[in-house]
Design brief:
Elements lengths: L1 E6 L2 E3 L5 E9 L6 E7 L6 E6 L5 E3 L7 E6 L4 E6 L8 E8 L13 E2 L3 E5 L2
């Protein structure tokens, strides 16, 4: 079992920045990839970014060039640096962990999820 706890959400003006953190505990040795997803009411959860244990990253087109995913293996923590935020980035952001090898990206590939943190971009 892997437990994930997100932090760092909040209210920010358009063009601003936030950094989300996700601390993992439990069976962390089993984790390959970690990812950030987001969801708004009435919509499906969508991929934001993923990073593998080897450091390979993947970004959704909508955030490429603005968001950066990184991980600190010593701290068992993954981060999402979000710059130049837009109102359409408003969502609940979820951290997720996968023990699948390769480059998991689909929601079912990730078996462990955090509780979510709200990000609101508004003036």
């Amino acid at each position: 079992q892997v437990q994930l706890v997100e932090s760092g959400g909040g209210l920010v003006q358009p063009g601003g920045s936030l950094r989300l953190s996700c601390a993992a505990s439990g069976s962390i040795f089993s984790i390959n990839a970690m990812g950030w997803y987001r969801q708004t009411p009435g919509k499906e959860r969508e991929l934001v970014a993923t990073i593998t244990s080897g450091g390979t990253t993947y970004y959704a087109e909508s955030v490429k060039g603005r968001f950066t995913i990184s991980r600190d293996n010593a701290k068992n923590t993954v981060y999402l640096q979000m710059n130049n935020l837009k109102p359409e980035d408003t969502a609940v952001y979820y951290c997720a962990a996968s023990n699948l090898l390769g480059f998991p990206r689909a929601v079912p590939d990730f078996r462990s999820w955090g509780q979510g943190t709200q990000v609101t971009v508004s003036s």
